[in-house]
Design a protein that fits this description.
single chain; alpha+beta; Rieske Iron-sulfur Protein; three-stranded antiparallel sheet; about 50% helix
């Protein structure tokens, strides 16, 4: 098992260093960015409505269906197996779309590994589609073999996806491990926070974005939950939302809620008060 793990890690490292993948990755990424330009589309695929990324949830559906199809093949349940293959094919469509939306925001080695992850999943889907067609024509043995091969591709791809999520931290909220500040903490002079300015301060060890809009003072964490972008370098609009400069996530300064992905986790909010001309913060 150690040898297999070492071999997989070596393969992932090589993929990450293969810069020849970059032209294809950038071209496909451009297509994805164009297709997800609409906020409603981006939010649906990113999982902004769910509270975390949608792709990991959706992956369970095709993997589960195709795994069940193989079990049914072994049990001789040919008709049920074909139906499970078909269910997995249908489920793979929204799964692939959500994965592509998340992947388009990656860079460097992670984007290269993500591209291979997507290609492996596409290969698995083609094998499963072929299996379904072959089964429909009465060639159950060939269909079962194709399904098994497709499942192998899916599991190999899942390993790459696991590496991106659990080793590289793709999709993990960048504020998940920030400390809470329970005591009121002096962070700035009230006179220094101008109307409409994005000001970065520190409460304890946590970077916080201070914004005064229409006279009201708001504070959310200054690190974008999506990929750690500096929100204080973003843009504030008249609707009370700040746009992350890295990937375009829009976050409401009043409550930290996500208005547009790729962010899917709300920004932590902070309580504010002004005392003796000083701004004090503590975790909400």
């Amino acid at each position: 098992m150690r040898m297999l793990t070492a071999a997989m890690q070596t393969l992932i490292e090589r993929i990450g260093k293969t810069k020849e993948l970059d032209p294809a990755a950038e071209k496909v990424s451009g297509w994805v960015d164009t297709a997800t330009r609409s906020a409603s589309v981006k939010n649906a695929l990113s999982g902004s409505w769910l509270g975390h990324q949608a792709h990991p949830v959706l992956t369970d559906l095709p993997i589960g269906a195709w795994g069940a199809a193989t079990v049914l093949d072994l049990a001789g349940e040919e008709r049920a197996a074909r139906r499970m293959v078909g269910l997995g094919i249908l489920a793979s469509v929204p799964t692939a779309l959500s994965g592509a939306s998340d992947w388009s925001s990656m860079h460097g080695p992670d984007k290269r590994v993500g591209l291979v992850h997507g290609l492996a999943n596409a290969t698995a889907s083609v094998l499963q589609m072929t299996s379904w067609l072959v089964r429909r024509r009465g060639h159950h043995g060939a269909g079962a073999a194709l399904s098994l091969l497709g499942l192998g591709c899916t599991l190999g791809s899942a390993y790459l996806g696991g590496h991106l999520s659990f080793v590289r931290g793709i999709g993990v909220s960048r504020t998940a491990f920030q400390d809470e500040v329970d005591d009121w903490t002096d962070v700035a002079a009230d006179a220094d926070i101008a109307e409409g300015a994005l000001t970065r301060v520190t409460a304890g060890d946590v970077p916080v974005l201070l914004v005064r809009q229409r006279g009201d003072l708001h504070a959310i964490s200054a690190v974008c939950t999506h990929a750690g972008g500096p929100l204080d370098e973003g843009e504030l609009d008249t609707d009370g939302c700040v746009t992350c400069p890295w990937h375009g996530s829009r976050l409401r300064i009043e409550d930290g809620s996500v208005q547009r992905g790729p962010a899917s986790v709300a920004e932590p909010c902070w309580q504010t008060k002004v005392q003796d001309g000083r701004i004090l913060l503590r975790s909400a």
